[in-house]
Design brief:
single chain, alpha+beta, nine-stranded mixed sheet, 12 helices, 28% helix
Length: 470
């Protein structure tokens, strides 16, 4: 994509309303634009990242055998009255009436809707287990929406739901999602640590939240230093097998939020305890028959008796993840995208677009990159070199290729790796070969450090249910 043809409304100054790094950088980099409090339009650069995050989430869900559906954003109030949550949920729920005066709501979550679908269709234990998921926009009317997409009112969320005959089957489904979540975040270059959590308004007695380490995180977290060297993607996973050993392995390492950490009983020595800031990016729950029983979701068991379905729900805030990725991957110059979620893999900079030789060489390299399947953003604007370098650093593409008169005279282009800052002069062929076979993108430095001394830039308040959603 040529930058002269792209829509990238950059801001020179930090917006006054943006309190945290991700909100500032998403506005400055032209990724989003606020429509109203806590509601954003996703502009081309931001939407590319959102779609890549969504793709990784979807691929890892599909890998487990979960089936994708799509449920509506607007739900009938009577379903929520059946579960008992309509009046209990609070003002975060946006309640509306249609033209026939029927009570409706803009869904903040989908336990009731998916339970109604399953109860109408599954009548026998022979049809179990079933795991269903969708990726859909949701709305929670936060009293004080802030922090950009980290706590907005409208947000994109992946939520999955499991239906099993008994507690043992439900635990197997829970373990599948537990492992899939660790893989999902690892593929995005994030070190996500599972921590036991309160179930909150969702209900149930088993829950984990997945927290990534970031210096600008919402709250303090404590974990075994061994977590920092754990390679999730190195483990071979067979989702048809019993994943309980893997679950026990990855929950055997100490990890706790500040709400659950007790220094007096902590089993880790101070030398091995990492104290950091963290951001919640996912939350999973097992809640048994909390919804199935009041909503009449029963099946005939093996003995012919009616059995209430055992259920769990599993959420990932897809749009929230974009903000979380920036919180964990930035420096003073701007965003530093991991390769797997970067909007473009490389930024091509023509330092002298008015110079015919530079223009010809840059156009030729641009065409070769496209032919090789490399996602490239080509800065062909008539701007100063300083402005072009600042733009590329701000939007954070993993690599930059720079073409100028001096390099052309030597038969080279300059290649800069955004995260490390390393610069090298390469032939065009060498640069093409390297970009066609992308190098692995290392984890951000914040995930490899020991004790974090930075002060929180979030208030730490938790407003409303299921904070990973928005």
């Amino acid at each position: 994509m040529r930058l002269t043809q792209y829509f990238l409304p950059l801001l020179r100054e930090n917006p006054s309303e943006a309190q945290i790094v991700s909100h500032r950088l998403m506005l400055r980099a032209g990724m989003i634009r606020q429509s109203s409090a806590g509601i954003y339009s996703w502009l081309p650069l931001g939407l590319r990242v959102l779609k890549k995050v969504e793709r990784i989430v979807r691929e890892e869900q599909d890998r487990t055998g979960v089936l994708e559906i799509l449920m509506p954003t607007v739900q009938p109030a009577e379903l929520w009255r059946e579960s008992g949550r309509y009046d209990d949920y609070g003002k975060e729920m946006l309640r509306i009436r249609d033209r026939h005066d029927r009570e409706m709501l803009y869904g903040p979550t989908n336990e009731e809707q998916v339970t109604e679908i399953v109860r109408a269709s599954i009548k026998s234990y022979r049809d179990l287990p079933k795991l269903l998921y969708h990726i859909q926009w949701k709305f929670r009317d936060e009293v004080r929406p802030r922090f950009g997409v980290m706590r907005g009112r409208e947000f994109l969320m992946k939520d999955a739901y499991s239906f099993d005959l008994d507690a043992a089957g439900a635990k197997r489904s829970y373990n599948k999602m537990f492992v899939a979540y660790l893989r999902t975040f690892a593929r995005m270059g994030l070190k996500a640590i599972p921590m036991q959590a309160d179930t909150g308004p969702i209900g149930g007695d088993l829950s984990h939240e997945f927290i990534i380490l970031a210096e600008t995180g919402e709250s303090a977290v404590y974990c075994d230093r061994a977590w920092l060297s754990t390679d999730i993607l190195a483990a071979e996973v067979d989702y048809r097998s019993d994943l309980e050993p893997m679950f026990r392995q990855w929950t055997g390492l100490y990890a706790a939020t500040d709400e659950k950490h007790d220094p007096a009983t902590c089993p880790i020595s101070p030398d091995e305890l990492v104290i950091a800031r963290g951001i919640e990016v996912g939350h999973i729950f097992y809640f048994g028959d909390k919804y199935s029983r009041p909503m009449g979701a029963f099946v005939a068991g093996r003995d012919g008796e009616a059995v209430a379905l055992e259920m769990g729900s599993y959420g990932i805030g897809v749009s929230r993840l974009v903000g979380a990725l920036i919180e964990a991957n930035h420096d003073d110059a701007g965003i530093v995208w991991p390769l797997s979620v970067a909007p473009f893999c490389v930024g091509l900079i023509n330092l002298r677009p008015a110079d015919a030789r530079c223009r010809e060489a840059a156009d030729d390299l641009y065409g070769k990159l496209l032919a090789a399947g490399v996602e490239v953003l080509y800065d062909d604007r008539d701007e100063s070199p300083g402005a072009k370098f600042a733009t590329m650093d701000l939007i954070g593409l993993p690599d930059q290729l720079v073409i100028g008169p001096r390099g052309l005279a030597a038969g080279t282009v300059e290649m800069k790796h955004r995260r490390s800052g390393e610069r090298r002069d390469l032939s065009v062929e060498a640069a093409l070969n390297q970009l066609s076979s992308p190098h692995p993108d290392p984890l951000p430095a914040s995930a490899a450090r020991g004790k974090h001394g930075s002060s929180p830039r979030f208030s730490g308040e938790r407003e409303g249910p299921a904070s990973a959603g928005g």
